[in-house]
Known about the structure:
Chain A contains ten helices and three strands; from the N terminus they run βββαααααααααα. Chain A is mostly helical. In chain A, helix 5 (125-143) crosses helix 6. Chain A is globular. In chain B, helix 1 runs parallel beside helix 2 and helix 1 (19-33) crosses helix 8 (196-206). Chain B has a seven-stranded parallel β-sheet with strand order 3-2-4-1-5-6-7, with helices on both faces. The mean pLDDT of chain B is 92.
Amino acid sequence: MSTKSSNTIDTTDDDNKNSNMKYDASEEILVPEESLLEEVSMLQLGDSFFPTGMYTTSSGLETLFYDRRIKTKQEVIEFITVCLQFQIGPADCAALSNAYDFAKQENITKIIEIDNILFAMKLIKEIRDASTRSGRQLLNCLSSFSNNNLVASYYQSIKNKTASGIYPVALALAANSLNIKKERACLILLYGFTVSITGAALRLGMLQHIEGQQVIHELKPIITMVIRNNIQRHFSHLWQFSPGIDLVQMKHERMDSKMFIT
Amino acid sequence: MTFKRIPRVGIGGPVGSGKTMLIEQFVPLLSQIGYRTAIISNDVVSKEDADRMRRNLASERGLMPESLVIGLATGGCPHTAVREDPSMNLSVVEDIESAHNQELDLIIIESGGDNITTTFSPALADYFIYIIDVAGGDKYPRKRGLGIENCDLLVINKIDLAPHVGADLKIMERDAKLIRKDKPFVFVNCKTGDGIKEVADNIIKDVLFDIPPKTTKN
């Protein structure tokens, strides 16, 4: 690639000498700049490279692995599906959606209310703590490159201990501040959860690397369905019900030897 | 969260090199002077190291409250937890700083055992100690690696084993000087305490800047 003029780049390379394609920076692109910025911001927040520490959790999968209750790829998919449908969807995803709406209205009081409700719904201390740690670190990182008054107010509430900083609410505010649409913020949440558990399965040796991608691919329709089912849920109707997984997660919390925070 | 930063020392090194025992040796020396410390112990598969330090340093010797020895599971990624994404460690550090800013002088962060490329994020640790042991062979520190080259203090442990494993301490000393240029290194035996005072002195000079302890112990 060589620069021919100040705004024209010759993309000719060995594989494509005949096409002589040129990119002219002065040409108008079809996709609006705001839309591209939103997409890039979505990729940034949804990337496992974004420092939230979510790679440290397995949501109880580690216990099921050591108890030999989950062995196959299909069983990993079923585990993540139950978590998404009965924990993350009706609780975290719905809380994110409501917090996002109140962020649009700049209603910090309601945002804190949702934070407190979701915090109280998380039965397992390690999971509760991990979620608030991830949320706080998300806001901490976000504040280093983006200024937003609502994020600052929420941050202050965490400092004053009136809010916990639980991850879905923190993500809602982060997405709002970066102009990421609500449904895409939900995608970041559910995709991030799916990747973190799939990654845990990979590190535990339950899956091979290609299988990990197959798991994520197979879960795509579940992720979108869970979002459709919960994005309109009012915050007074948040719920979660997965007693079997709750018990597994409680057992994991008490394990002496483990790789993951529950 | 922004709280007044308490100085932090990161300790990394291969599995079994003596990270935990090094802490168990120098913390009492700092405590004798009056410095108060907290410990975050990252462990790959258990909280055994944290439990041991809590028992040895807090429960039995009363050098710190039991609540200030904190074990952290890192999802099997010891280097990620202290370098690429130190979020979980930073969050624990912030909790400690918000609750104990007035009295704590130092936070020690022990990495899970890892390979010789371990380094600490400067956002997490102000000072980085890397520990190796002679049982790995006298090819270290010649083999280099980010940890050995870049740490603020290189600690070479288990010097008593040198004759038993055919390691020549003179070669290790020569290579450490060559690789690390002007940066310090120290030979220690964490079983007997040999060389540990030099480690504590380095921390007092280069991390605590010879500032007296914040509070006087009762």
